[in-house]
Amino acid sequence: MISHQFRRAPFLIALVFVLLLLLNGWDASTILRSKAAAQETVTEGVYQWRQSYMALREVLGQWEKKYRRDDSIQDLISLYAMVGLDRYGLRTNADNVILNTIEPIVQNNLHIGLTKICLISTRGADHDSLLVEAHDYETLFRGLSQLADQPDIHIGKISIKGDSSLATANLGDFCILLRTSQS
User: Fold this and answer.
1) Is residue 173 a contact partner of residue 158, using CB atoms and an 8 Å limit?
2) Nearest CA to 130 among 166, 176, 87, 164?
3) Residue 115 in contact with residue 178, Cβ under 8 Å?
4) Do the strands 129-134 and 167-179 form a parallel or antiparallel pair, or are they unpaired?
5) Which of 114, 162, 105, 153 is nearest to 130 (CA)?
6) Residue 134: exposed, middle, or buried by beta-carbon count in 10 A (0-12, 13-18, 19+)?
7) Is residue 136 within 8 Å of residue 115, measured between CB atoms?
8) Which residues pair with 159 in a beta bridge?
């Protein structure tokens, strides 16, 4: 009888060993599945972040094309030259152009990385605007339209003067938008 129990002992030991292996294997499998799920979540997050970054990179490229850096402007002469009124058939007396204001552009109480630099003329009836001229009204209107289409130029109001031999206009709140060097 004892010998019969000893014969079953290796079988029982093997059975217990197999059960322990199965339980430990099940626990290890559960841990491995949870780690794989966590890794999949992290991988998905990185993928979504990368997609957002790639979309933002396009916007940043457009931002850099539209707005020049403020460190590219050394003085009033280089600022005036950057505007390039003559490209639009417009002109003004550069000796009468001065800086009016320089201020950061703020949106939702945050500086968005743009600085607004406004210019005015010291001559003319309206001292809060930039006085521009063209050789005729057609050139004046076309030039003003092209100038207003520039994303880095802001014109608050335009007053056309029809009482002189030259086609003239006062550009109220005439400002150039530049990217700040910190952005």
Assistant:
1) no
2) 176
3) yes
4) antiparallel
5) 153
6) buried
7) no
8) 170
Tokens of 72: 């590219």
Q: pTM of the entire structure?
A: 0.67
User: Token pair of 110, please?
Assistant: 């945050």
CB-based burial of residue 153 (10 Å sphere; 0-12 exposed, 13-18 middle, 19+ buried)?
middle
**Given its phi and psi angles, is residue 123 left (phi above 0), alpha (psi -120 to 50 degrees) or beta?**
beta
The pLDDT of residue 64 = 81
Q: What is the C-alpha to C-alpha distance for residues 70 and 145, in angstroms, rounded to an integer?
A: 25
* pLDDT 10s digits, 70-91: 777 888 888 888 889 999 999 9
Residue 24 tokens read as: 């430990």
Task: Tell me if 125 sits within 8 A of 157, measured CB to CB.
Answer: no
For residues 178 and 73, the answer to whether their CB atoms sit within 8 Å is yes
